[in-house]
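Consider a typical record:
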Amino acid sequence: MSLFGDILPINKNESQNNQASANLSPYLNFDPNYIPKMQPEFLYPDESHMASTARRSNVALPIIGMSFMTGSGLGGMAGLYKGLRATTLAGQIGKVRRTQLINYVMKQGTTTGCTLGILASFYSSIALGVTWIRDQEDTANTFIAATATGVLYKSTAGLRSMGLGAAAGLTLAGLYTLLTDNDNIWSKARYIKM
């Protein structure tokens, strides 16, 4: 073996051994050519029908969970505020006040959390269905799903409430799109030179 064995081999046998050992993994001490190459390395091709619905369904559960947790936190804070007001006005102290505060926090937290969780479930299910039917992934799916969620959520309260729910869903979808979509009017306004 020479000092510069890889560059200037002394004899031909050494160069053949170096070529054979080049395929061996220095960490695992085996030839990686024995492992079959697995194709494809992704679940769905990027342009397939299932790829867009898979992306939407992978996002659905985190959206539902975050909505529930956010609603529980906000509802718990609102319940604490209401509980502090109510127990102060009632003149309660000690263990009774503590129990009442816990009741207010838990009741308001779970009510608000469940409400936002149901809304997120409606939205995710409808968005997944719209994406599957339209076979496109764009902002129209967000608008359709949000509007339909508002209509469905207020469907038992009458036509006027359904219209207000649709308007609220459409407004929230518009705000969401303005904030998150990179291809909207606000992002284009930044690049306009005066």
